[in-house]
Design goal:
With 355 residues, this protein is an alpha/beta fold. It has one domain. The chain is built from 10 helices and 9 strands. The longest helix is centred in the middle third of the chain and has 24 residues. The protein is globular, with a radius of gyration of 20 Å. About 6% of the residues have low confidence. InterPro entries: GDSL (IPR001087), SGNH_hydro_sf (IPR036514), SGNH_plant_lipase-like (IPR035669). One of its GO terms (molecular function) is hydrolase activity, acting on ester bonds. It holds the Pfam family Lipase_GDSL.
Length: 355
C-alpha cells in the first residue's frame, strides 16, 4: 500500500506577528512527474478552517468573505486561505468542513480544521473565553478515523452516496496537511505565563503533534517571535525523527515564517501597505480592539457604527487584527509552493515522491 503524503505546518499570528513554520512533503528531484493527488485531508485552526467553527459554534458574519465569495464562507478572512490556493493549484475543489456536512461533497477530501483549535487539550473552551473543543487529537484520532471508516460504509450503498465520498485508495494517495500550533502558544501568553514558561511547554506541544502524526524591530513583539522560532526549532527536530519513524512518508520542512515575516518588514516591495493595521476593525493605532471585532457594532456619540472593512483589502496584510487577507494568503502560498523555502527544496506538486 502506498504511504500518504504528509504536509505539516504551523502557522502565524499576524496581530503579534507570531509567525511559525510550515512543514510539508515534497521531493527535490525536479525530474520527477507531477503528482496527481486525488484528495486533501486538512487538520488545523483558523488559518485553514473553511467552515468548521461557523457550522458548529459561532456564525461568521459580513464583511468576512467579501473579496472572493461576496458573502461569509466560513473563513476568517475577506476571501480565500492558503489551503484554498493549495487545492486550486492541485486541480481539486475547495475543501468542505467535516462539521458542515449538509449537502457536502467529500469525494476530494475533507477539512477537519476549526478556528481556535490547539494541539493540546485546551484549558478553557468556547464560549467560556477559551479555545475550540476540537483540538488536534479530536480532529485526527476521532473525526478523521471515523470518517475514514464510515465513508466507505456509505460508499457501499452505491448511487449518489458513492459519488460524495472518497474512494478507499484515496486515503493512501492523498495529501495530508496539518496547519496548527499558534493557539497553544497564545493560550500561554493570554494566560499570563512568562516567556520562560511558554518555552518550557513547547516540547510537550511538539510531542503531542508528533504522536498524532505517527498514529496514521518592525513593530512586532520580539519576545513572541522568539518563542515562535523556538517552537519552530523543536518542530524541525521532531520532523527529523518523524522521517525515521515514518520511512515510507515524504516529509519536508517549509519555512513559512520567513515569507510571512517579509510582509511586515518589506510590505511595499510586495505591493502591500500598513501591514500591522487591521483592514476590518476599529480603534487605536492598529485599528483593532478586543472588545469589538470585524463585523460587529459599536456605539459612538450615541450612534451605532458597523465595523466594516477598509477600501482596498487587496493591498493589506492584516484582515481583522488576527488573520490574514486573501491577498496575503495568496502571496504566501505562491512563495512556498515553488519549494524555494522547503527543506529539501521541492515544489508542492511533486510532494508524493519520497526522498
Amino acid at each position: 500500500m502506498e504511504s500518504p503524503t504528509i504536509l505539516k505546518f504551523t502557522i502565524s499570528h499576524p496581530f503579534f506577528c507570531m509567525l511559525l513554520l510550515f512543514a510539508s512533503t515534497v521531493n527535490p528531484v525536479f525530474g520527477l512527474k507531477r503528482c496527481n493527488f486525488p484528495a486533501i485531508f486538512n487538520f488545523g485552526d483558523s488559518n485553514s478552517d473553511t467552515g468548521g467553527l461557523s457550522a458548529s459554534l459561532i456564525t461568521i458574519t459580513p464583511p468576512y468573505g467579501e473579496t472572493y465569495f461576496h458573502k461569509p464562507a466560513g473563513r476568517a478572512s475577506d476571501g480565500r486561505l492558503m489551503i484554498d490556493f493549495m487545492a486550486k493549484s492541485l486541480g481539486l475543489p475547495y475543501l468542505s468542513a467535516y462539521l458542515d456536512s449538509l449537502g457536502t461533497n467529500f469525494s476530494h477530501g475533507a477539512n477537519f480544521a476549526t478556528s481556535a483549535s490547539t494541539i493540546r487539550l485546551p484549558t478553557k473552551i468556547i464560549p467560556a473565553g477559551g479555545f475550540s473543543p476540537f483540538y488536534l487529537d479530536i480532529q485526527y484520532s476521532q473525526q478523521f478515523v471515523q470518517f475514514k471508516s464510515r465513508s466507505q460504509m456509505i460508499r457501499k450503498k452505491g448511487g449518489i452516496f458513492a459519488t460524495l465520498m472518497p474512494k478507499g485508495d484515496y486515503f493512501s494517495k492523498a495529501l495530508y496537511t496539518f496547519d496548527i500550533g499558534q493557539n497553544d502558544l497564545g493560550e500561554g501568553f493570554f494566560g499570563n505565563m512568562t516567556i520562560e514558561e511558554v518555552n518550557a511547554s513547547i516540547p510537550d506541544i511538539v510531542n503531542k503533534f508528533s504522536i498524532n502524526v505517527k498514529r496514521d524591530s518592525y513593530g512586532c513583539a520580539k519576545s513572541y517571535n522568539d518563542v515562535a522560532q523556538y517552537f519552530n526549532h523543536d518542530l524541525k527536530e521532531a520532523i527529523v525523527q518523524l522521517r525515521k519513524d515514518l520511512p515510507l512518508a515524504a516529509i519536508t520542512y517549509v519555512d513559512v515564517y520567513s515569507v510571512k515575516y517579509s510582509l511586515f518588514t518589506k510590505p511595499k516591495e510586495y505591493g502591500f501597505e500598513l501591514p500591522l493595521v487591521a483592514c476590518c476593525g476599529y480603534g487605536g493605532m492598529y485599528n483593532y480592539s478586543s472588545s469589538v471585532g470585524c463585523g460587529g457594532t459599536i456605539t459612538v456619540n450615541g450612534s451605532q457604527i458597523f465595523v466594516g472593512s477598509c477600501e482596498r483589502p487587496s493591498v493589506r496584510v492584516n484582515w481583522d487584527g488576527i488573520h490574514y487577507t486573501e491577498a496575503a494568503n495568496k502571496f504566501v502560498f505562491d512563495q512556498i509552493s515553488t519549494g524555494a523555502f522547503s527543506d529539501p527544496p521541492i515544489p508542492l506538486k511533486m510532494a508524493c515522491h519520497n526522498n
